[in-house]
Amino acid sequence: MDKRVQSVKWLYLTFFLLPVLAMAQEKETKKEKETNIDEVVLVGYTRVSKKDVTNAVSSVKAEAIKDMPSTNAAEAIQGRMAGVQVSLSEGSPGADVDIVIRGGNSITGSNAPLYIVDGVQMDNALSILSPKEIQSIEVLKDASSTSIYGARGANGVVLITTKGGRKRAKTSINYNGFLGVRSIQNTIDVLDPYQYVLYQYELYNRGGVQTDIDLFKNRYGTYADLEKYKTIKRRDWQDEVFGREAFNFTHNLSVTGGSDNSSFSLSLNNVQEDGIMIGSGFKRNMANFKYDYDLSKKVSMTLNARYSRQTIFGAGTSSTGSQSTNRLRNAVRYQPFEGGSTVNVDDFDPLFANETNLVNPVLLANNEVKENGRNDLLLNGTLEYKITKDLTFRSVIGYVQRDEFVNQFSGPITSLARQNNDQPVVFLSKTQSRRITNTNTLNYRKTFGSHKLDLLAGQEIVKTDAESLTMNIKWFPKSISAEEAFANIQAASPPSGQVQDIPRTNVLPDRLVSFFGRANYIFRNKYIVTASMRADGSSVFGPGNQWGYFPAASVAWKINEENFLKDSRTISELKLRAGYGMSGNNRIAAFLYNTFFTTSSDYGYAFGSNVTPGATTGNIMSNPGVKWESSASKNAGLDFGFFKGRLYGTLDVYQTDTKDLLLLAKIPQTSGYEYQYQNSGSTTNKGIEFSVGASVINKENFKWNIDANISSNKNMIKSLGNSASASANFYYYPSGWQNNLNDFLVQVGKPVGTYWGYVTAGRYEISDFNYNATTQTYTLKSGVPSSAAAANGAKAVQPGDLKLQDLNGDGVIDNNDMTDLGNAQPKFYGGFNQTFRYKNWDMSVLFNFSVGNKVYNANKIEYSTQYLYRDNNMLAEVADRWRWFDDAGNKVNDPTALAALNANTTMWTPPAGAYFLHSYAIEDGSFLRLNNLTIGYSLNKDFAKQLGLSNFRLYFTMNNVFTITGYSGYDPEANTRRNPLTPGVDYAAYPRSRFILSGVDITF
């Protein structure tokens, strides 16, 4: 069995089963307390006792994350909820956090859940919340719970409630601050200086071309001179670019209090964080004010105002573009020593850059400036009127505004500037979105005899407007600084006959009107029935297709309330649940049912001596018939509790079928377009989730709690509709890191994100060839398939070249030999958390894991392929490649001598052809990560009171402590392509860092 799988199982046994056994043996004492009693969760516009929930809901309360210091709320919930995958796309400051609930339902659309913060819809809400201000997070996972939210509920709903003050409570001031430092955790191993020049010697001398031989001598010296490279000073460019100690200063301040009829809460957050990469960092300031007031015994109101301002600094290592945007390449492939060029290694050499496609990584990092800013404003108010004892009217109105900007400066040595007369280029982007939400509900609750009825009727409108402006400004003076260019774009001066690109604007209005109802009926506190219905009308669809209808129903049976279990001392909760529902997705741009035109000089034409910008419809064809994407979900679950709630958990099985997928389909170019949004095809997700928790020991001076979860999800494409090939239900899709590389397969019967490429078969050996001693040439033996066309740029293969498997046995290795290489879906994933309290000490340990997922390590392909350029460094394993030159620097051709020379080598010669995917780059991405370790000490309550404090706690934390994995890249969780069709691609990701910090939590 794989060692990583064994590690996961062993730790799972250690941290879960053994504590449960210990708990079962522990005798109860009078001081022990029941757990999970009368816990309330937020479900569908109303709060419900957790014991009465009929849906699949995961919940994280403030208590679980209050002692975990983090700048990102999403990190605080990673690994805590079954069926909820939380992962960072890469390790850069402010990096995107992916949250996927029960697998991805959409193919080309977004799989992000719907976020509701204090009753108001927001996008990516966790990125503007501090973990310290969160009261609870509820995740609705099945359609029987999400359908009440209709639009955009198909991918799950995340309900976030922020903390407020308490009535009749004295004013309390809390300060929580920490100071920490980040450092790179691992680097990619590359050739050392001696190995590097030996490889260059082979490249320059193997062909026997005298000009190449002379070029090598001029740059590196003779073969006899190469010994000096064993002792030459090595430049570790990864360390120089990513090796700085990056400090973090985080401050959280909150003031809460209340009177007899009001309460308030004010929270402030400030984060100043450096990135481990030169020029990168993150800055954020947040303020939130919440006020509750009882106008009378029947009328109450809540006002909330939140403002967040954050900026991410640094151009990072990559973007979702192609290979040309890869900045990591320079740190990995730049020559690992000083010298080797007529220009000092720390100066820019344009000739060397053209010959190698590389720029000194330190110079490049300092020559690219990027500021990515975002300001968020949330205003919302709630009015609640208790019309009668049983009937309540509630109205929530919210306003959300987001302003985003990108300022990017590309200095003279960047590739973008070198394409534009070696003059700096500035990219500017501004976007503003505004959303007004109004939700009105009537809630009737009545208990009569053995019957309990809860009825809800509501209406909601969501009005969204957005505008964007982008400008690409070229030909700035070479001496201009980034700050000067941002402040004075008029300084750019186009050469004669050229004009600047016209700024691009975009207007994106979105209107949604909804009506919904929900009924919940409980009989004898044993049998529960819930039904809901929602109708949504969306402006993104054309006339006749604007309305979607989303019904749902669920039932539950509290078995523990039956007479045969009611007096059980062992079973405290046992509830069966089942549900079915439909939810919708409308996440496409507005007006795709009509044709619009955009202008740019890219579509221009010559008029006189200038270029006149033109207009075009773009590459997406309108579709007046596009309509709602809908998901139907079936769920069955079991909630259980034993020993008065000390051992508790849930088990869920589900199936979600999504049809009428909003697919960006490729269409025949005879139409004049390349793509069209269509309702084509369907997907299915099937899975099982299990979560369990235990209060293992609950003594006055020692407490030990554990929570664990494990989930498995299987995704499959059921249909591709009209978007598939006419002859088979499939098509190929590019990841985009290398142009024209179709390395993903989209096929009926396979999961989304299937890697498509060749199977690596090692290398060609001497035994595969006939040798002509007269001409000293090798030719493949008859019957040995050639990889020349696929892997070697059509050059005849030689001993040591990369060999691929001839899967169809036709003797030729071509596209017909490409196959399914696996996918990014794990067989199972989850996490487990333990908290300990001994007197005044506390400790928490949080693990998360994934088993069975594959990672597409595109870096391995690029850094082990020669392709077009020499003088590029390679992965360290290339040192073990096939050799053509002996220890004296002489080329060896004789078969016997050549075989002896390579008896102990295993790696093939780096391919000279274009980049392509083969199984060498598909790695097992299974991992077990100790995500967080926190140790704290709190002053004795009596002593703290003498100091005028109600609480004083010191803590020490390590995030990303260690990762057990066989993956060779920076991080097995890297996911850099940002497209549901191309998951699990690790290409030029910003390295993930370890974070060590210490802080203080003081309450006055």
Brief synopsis:
12% of the residues lie in helices and 44% in strands.
What secondary-structure arrangement, pairings included, does this model have?
Elements: H1 3-25, E1 40-43, E2 46-49, E3 57-61, H2 62-65, H3 73-76, E4 84-88, E5 97-101, E6 114-117, E7 120-122, E8 134-140, H4 143-146, E9 157-162, E10 172-184, H5 193-205, H6 210-220, H7 237-242, E11 246-258, E12 262-274, E13 281-294, E14 299-313, H8 328-333, H9 350-356, H10 361-367, E15 368-386, E16 391-410, H11 415-418, E17 425-448, E18 451-473, H12 482-487, E19 504-507, E20 510-523, E21 527-538, E22 547-558, H13 563-566, E23 571-585, E24 598-607, E25 610-616, E26 620-621, E27 629-642, E28 647-659, E29 662-666, E30 675-679, E31 682-698, E32 702-719, E33 730-733, E34 744-747, E35 754-757, E36 760-763, E37 769-772, E38 777-780, H14 788-791, E39 802-804, E40 819-823, E41 828-838, E42 841-851, E43 854-857, H15 858-862, H16 895-901, E44 922-924, E45 927-938, H17 941-946, E46 951-965, E47 985-986, E48 993-1003
Parallel strand pairs: 6-9, 26-30, 43-47
Antiparallel strand pairs: 1-2, 3-8, 4-5, 6-7, 8-9, 10-11, 10-48, 11-12, 12-13, 13-14, 14-15, 15-16, 16-17, 17-18, 18-19, 18-20, 20-21, 21-22, 22-23, 23-27, 24-25, 27-28, 28-31, 29-30, 31-32, 32-41, 33-34, 34-35, 35-40, 36-39, 37-38, 41-42, 42-45, 43-44, 45-46, 46-48
Helix pairs in contact: 5-6
